[in-house]
Amino acid sequence: MTVIQARVIHAMTIPFTLQLASDTASAAQLATLIDTVTPRVADFLRQVETTFSPFRSDSQVTAARHGDWSPLLADASDHHLPQSAAQGQRPSRHAGITLAPDGTRRTQSAFAEVYALMEQAKGLTHGHFDPMHAGAYDPTGIVKGWAVERAHEQFLMPLIKSGQCDAAALGGGGDIQTAVADTSDFTWNIGVQDPSNPHGTVRTVTMRNGGIATSGTSQRGEHITRSTHDLTQATVIGDHLTFADMWATTAISAGERTFRELVAANPAAQNDLMAVFIRADGTVSELKPGRSTPPSTNRPALS
């Protein structure tokens, strides 16, 4: 029998839910494990808020808005966010290298990493994902998904790889990263919320490893610069939450038709992404990947 333990973390002005599942551990063992890891995840998420919140006067984003872009050249070891490379572990899959003024190569700071991802997203989406909002630098369209994926990779994946649990999920504000051990047949079932009914769902996503991100106007209003269209919510499922988050934001910015055109022109996105669109009139449509290879049992499914 699978045992699941969950804890709630309040950070970045929203609640995050951390879940661990095990086919072999007792409820008490899993509770001890999750109580050990939860404070570490909470600390990471709160430090992300300290660094990236555009609403804090002391954040690096606020400093950049006032012309101080020096964190772009900072080394990861100079940054207060936990860095897997600085701890002697394998660097994050997103971690990059930057050149210092003296020519030395250094691992990017979190600020530089997110900035690079924002610029990459702008290019991939032909400018529909824009790191500028209302004339100011605003990384909130990607930083929450990035933070959840980073925290999941750094703190939860080691628990799966070491056999301490069989599955782990972390999510908040519509962004969820999941993983399941290869030896387990556990699956995560995630509901796509109905924006007109906070207690209803329009689809259920069954997945093992990957990220699911939802963007829309029902919870936060018009917080994304967007063209005229009738899309009110977009949920995107992909291999990595950071990019699922980016594509979900893009869908709300560009609209369903343009989103489909962008995905069709991007082979990687076309092969990997799934999406659920909800229009202003309440109708629902889907985008399914155009894989040329047979579907895997690890592939997310919609129902």
TrEMBL record:
Q: Where is this region: Disordered?
A: 80-100
**What Gene3D superfamilies would the database entry show?**
ApbE-like domains
InterPro entries given in the database record = ApbE, ApbE-like_sf
Q: Which Pfam families match?
A: ApbE
Q: What GO molecular-function term can you cite, just one?
A: metal ion binding
Say yes or no: keyword Lipid biosynthesis present: no
Which region is the signal sequence? 1-27
Its recorded reaction(s) are: L-threonyl-[protein] + FAD = FMN-L-threonyl-[protein] + AMP + H(+)
User: According to its UniProt record, which cofactors does this protein need?
Assistant: Mg(2+)
Entry EC no(s)? 2.7.1.180
Keyword set, alphabetical order: FAD, Flavoprotein, Magnesium, Metal-binding, Signal, Transferase
Q: Which SUPFAM superfamilies does its entry note?
A: ApbE-like
TM segment ranges: none
Instruction: Name the domain of life.
Output: Bacteria
Q: What is this protein called?
A: FAD:protein FMN transferase
- What is the species of this protein? Bifidobacterium scaligerum
Q: What is the lineage of its organism?
A: Bacteria, Bacillati, Actinomycetota, Actinomycetes, Bifidobacteriales
